[in-house]
Design brief:
The chain is an alpha+beta fold. The protein is elongated and about 75 Å long. It folds into two domains: about 1-115, OB fold (Dihydrolipoamide Acetyltransferase, E2P), CATH 2.40.50.140; about 120-159. It has helices at about 80-110, 120-155; strands spanning about 10-20, 20-25, 30-35, 55-65, 70-75. Helix 1 (about 80-110) runs antiparallel to helix 2 (about 120-155). Strand 2 and strand 3 (about 30-35) form a beta hairpin.
């Protein structure tokens, strides 16, 4: 799944370079964007290394795109909800990737493994299915609970 970034999007990136004039951030698209030192904080920033460090995961807002496809980024324009939303989106994307990897592994192993003999005890198969269903319900409830909590925090903001 290809990610298309636009002005106003908030994403999590990794600090891959620090210069006196700003920081270079590797975005989820593998592109590199730059946070100018004036976009790091509301107050005057003398040393960018006081705010960011190499390898740090940081939420950034896209505030511009050059004709060459380079991204202008900001930490200063982020709200708490922007950062939480970006983190939640990243967690969802990571979960999707894990599920897709697991699905591919299951499909691959299904082709390699011989067809199992049917279980002699149908109650044992039924119990296995019920156990998997119970696990799936717990995971689904947790995802919905977290999503609802984030949505309530976002909608409770007075604009």
């Amino acid at each position: 799944m290809e990610i298309k970034l636009q002005i106003g999007d908030t994403v999590i990136g990794e600090v891959v370079g620090l210069k006196p004039y700003g920081a270079f951030i590797k975005l989820p698209t593998e592109d590199i964007g730059m946070v100018h030192i004036s976009e790091v904080a509301e107050e005057y920033v003398k040393e960018i290394s006081e705010y960011l460090e190499m390898g740090q995961q940081v939420a950034v807002k896209i505030i511009g795109v050059h004709q060459e496809g380079k991204y202008n980024l900001s930490l200063r324009h982020l709200t708490k909800q922007d950062a939480e939303s970006a983190q939640f989106s990243r967690e969802v994307q990571e979960a999707r990737e894990v599920l897709e990897t697991r699905r591919e592994a299951i499909l691959e192993s299904a082709w390699k493994r011989p067809v199992p003999e049917p279980k002699s005890d149908p109650d044992e198969s039924h119990a296995e299915i019920l156990e998997w269903v119970a696990k799936a319900r717990v995971i689904t409830k947790d995802v919905f609970r977290r999503s609802d909590a984030r949505q309530r925090s976002i909608t409770s903001i007075d604009l």
